[in-house]
Amino acid sequence: MTAISTILLAKLNIGIPMYVQLYDTTLRDGSQGEGVNFSLQDKLLITKKLDEMGFDYIEGGYPLSNEKDFEYFQQVQSLSLKHAKVCAFGMTRRRGVEAKDDTGMQALTSSKAPVCTVVGKTSDLHVTEVLRVDLEENIAMIRDSLSYLKSEGREVLYDAEHFFDGFIANPEYALSTVRAAQEAGADMVVCCDTNGGTLPEQIAEILAQVQKELSIPLGIHCHNDCDVAVANSLAGVDAGAKQVQGTINGIGERCGNADLVSVAANLSLKKEGYEVLTAGAGLTHLTELSRYVYEMANMNFRVNQAFVGRSAFAHKGGMHVHAVNRIAHSYEHINPETVGNERRILVSELSGRSNIVALTTKFKLDSDKELMGTILEQVQELESQGYQFEAAEASFDLLVKKLAKTYEPKFQRIHYRVNVETARQENPLTEATVKVKIAGGGEVRHEVGEGDGPVNALDTALRKALIPYYPGLEEMTLVDYKVRVINSAEGTAASVRVVIESKDDQDVWSTIGVSENIIEASWLALVDAIEYKLFKDDGELQG
Amino acid sequence: MTAISTILLAKLNIGIPMYVQLYDTTLRDGSQGEGVNFSLQDKLLITKKLDEMGFDYIEGGYPLSNEKDFEYFQQVQSLSLKHAKVCAFGMTRRRGVEAKDDTGMQALTSSKAPVCTVVGKTSDLHVTEVLRVDLEENIAMIRDSLSYLKSEGREVLYDAEHFFDGFIANPEYALSTVRAAQEAGADMVVCCDTNGGTLPEQIAEILAQVQKELSIPLGIHCHNDCDVAVANSLAGVDAGAKQVQGTINGIGERCGNADLVSVAANLSLKKEGYEVLTAGAGLTHLTELSRYVYEMANMNFRVNQAFVGRSAFAHKGGMHVHAVNRIAHSYEHINPETVGNERRILVSELSGRSNIVALTTKFKLDSDKELMGTILEQVQELESQGYQFEAAEASFDLLVKKLAKTYEPKFQRIHYRVNVETARQENPLTEATVKVKIAGGGEVRHEVGEGDGPVNALDTALRKALIPYYPGLEEMTLVDYKVRVINSAEGTAASVRVVIESKDDQDVWSTIGVSENIIEASWLALVDAIEYKLFKDDGELQG
């Protein structure tokens, strides 16, 4: 234990581990994100997953806002949750109405949610200019709403909107709003950086001041508009917050909310003196949870996402790979498995032998020194032509099979032809013909297909030719198609790299083709994608 | 000025604005990101853009590692940069060699770069276990390498790898490595959080201690593995770092580097007492820069990216939209225009006017309110189809001409046909025919061309048809050709965006085409590229 680390540990009050509650609002604040839209079923499934992982609070929605959210609160009661408390979100009562008569309040109580999270205004600007009520009425709205919900026997969390902006502009008024919340019986005051414009040092300094004023616990709710929502949440915890509100993968309006994936991992693995997720094992499901939520939200994964991204523990530089093989943690800040992620070694122009060995272990070929050498040479030769296997692991596996002489083609091309023709400004007509010989003395098949573009037409014709022999191809679909010009100095005469991403019910795989001709490059990638699928189905990829 | 804000401003030493250098390593560390691969031309174009915006240092590559990086340093000398210094990256000399005989050192000096950035080991673990040299030899490697480069008259920055991990494990040794760097004449020591495992409070505390030991300025280089790279960089600056190293959009190995877009915006807009980007106006080009780099790297934008994302100022929640209509800053932490971004109200996709006006001033049309409205509508319509004008200013200029009714086509297409045919594994034969009518009652020309690919064949045929009338096209060459699938959910049937970059002796310009058919999309971009060249030569682009 050296000087510095003791200083740090001391500062982080080691020895008194503090349990930090995680409050997930993926289903409410998260669903405000652009393009995010959860079905009722999605919401129930995500609720179950969050509960299994030990999240403490799950904000299910805003019962007043729509039928779906209202339904959610009815159906969620039949999920027997192990640990999490379900929260209904709402606003303080409207001006000049009694709380019990306010439709928002009624929606909260009839939701039957054990916890109600009520948002109210902190910033005098918002009260007078946006809400257009006087400052005293706003205080009354907070007090009445919370005391009514307490009288209905709910746990009540008060979300102080624009807390930090409001406090900086008018600390006295901001404090009077949260004092009112405490007097009305709120169980917690959550300070919200609604616009995401606050920096960590401000969060720390302001929360410390609020703590002096209140006896009930504080929570922190941050947005990522300055790209520091996670740091802000951690600063809030260091300043005494007992709860962090955020969303899975940080989805949410504008730049999103604090990413609870990163917050949980940092609090439990990187900082001393804190505990999260009662089900400690929860942490090892973070990667799975992150991808699950992306799937549900129908969003693409962020490959470079901290802790859980596909690239989070991917090593490309030959020097790094070399080092990681000697000592894993030399270029890894944590063991990927602690968050349910895995290490990946990428082949690239910077590759050395160590990348190849690491990648071929699954074929149990890595002991074959000579083969390793051949593969390395071949990879470097192909990469000098523009191949890039880091983005095409399936093509790399096929290459290994070929060089290991365990490769039997499933079909052979005799020829193909693509024709694109147009008149005036109309859309072109595209037709492709494919002639292939099925392996193992199969017949010669000659088929024609149309498509929106040449690759689509080739794909159509090729499937027509192969599916009678390989019905498994029915399950395979193309997910993405990327094209890149390599030695672009040559302009349109340069060679072209095509990467195709395909999937079936089990897997996603990428293949690559390089040629001066974009059609030929696409054909090569397409054929690899199909062959990979066929080898996979025949269990021929374990080597 | 209220209590709290004065405290904060005081703390942030208001009144003594400190200039913070921005060191961009997009072209070196950024290119280690998964799937990132810049062509030589991309690297030169990005260098130019960064220089125009006032970045202080641009790390162009690692001359020893590959031919492309070596070439870069030769060609970059002919770009007359206004402000930025170009840096070559390398490592300390190998064990037991004299610096002057070390191939890495020689690559650095022969790169002719005015600045050399040398990385060396700080962590005793890395020295003894990974590098496997003894601790003294590592110190000698640092000292010899830096003093050799100084004797060659270079500015030398020392990147202390794994500085924070090394310091926590063995502060004495860590400090001895950077002391050696200072004694050898390094102009700056840059403390690197190579594994991205350090948190802001540790960065602050450790940097403060290092400052006491050294008299030369410190820099900070962070990675995002804990999702706090931006906060770490800001903490480093508060602790006295005079330089922040990072990449545009935070691209880089694993979870990437600190995003200089967020760092620049936070230092200049959110924190008091700091200045960045000598060309102050640089900040208003951040959004453009971010998207430009994504295009060059052929990556998709992150819609929710802080400051510059398409959603960064997009309002979805009805309450928010309502409030924003009353007072813009009620849900916006800054004015979007300060970073060249724009507000979007998602329910009514209302956006862009300011950009349009900015982009049309050169045509002296911006006073024409009605035309501005028409252009705005048209741009929104086209962008909803997948057009992206940030990366295709030439196509935008042509669009403006069309809508301003100052556009006279130089030729009209009657039809084209492309045929790609192949046998066995041979390269396909590609033939294109083009039939066009030259403007102003010119003849109908029907030409045929061959090419390496369909676009090259079309280009050849089209030039054959046009050059007799427009000999200026002889000077025009295609520099780059990029393809992106837009709604990739559709696989090969999705629509395709083609961006073509062309140049002549004076300019480089980009044009775009979108279609479900890659051939048609390429044709559209190709025709724009040619027409732009012809209008340019006729001086018809000043409006």
TrEMBL record, chains A, B:
It holds the Pfam family HMGL-like. SUPFAM superfamilies: 2-isopropylmalate synthase LeuA, allosteric (dimerisation) domain (SSF110921), Aldolase (SSF51569). Residues 20-287 form the Pyruvate carboxyltransferase domain. Transmembrane segments: none annotated. It comes from the Bacteria. Keywords: Acyltransferase, Amino-acid biosynthesis, Branched-chain amino acid biosynthesis, Isoleucine biosynthesis, Transferase. It catalyses: pyruvate + acetyl-CoA + H2O = (3R)-citramalate + CoA + H(+). The keyword Acyltransferase applies. SMART domains: LeuA_dimer. Its EC number is 2.3.3.21. Pathway: Amino-acid biosynthesis; L-isoleucine biosynthesis; 2-oxobutanoate from pyruvate: step 1/3. One of its GO terms (biological process) is isoleucine biosynthetic process. One of its GO terms (molecular function) is (R)-citramalate synthase activity. Belongs to the alpha-IPM synthase/homocitrate synthase family. This is Citramalate synthase.
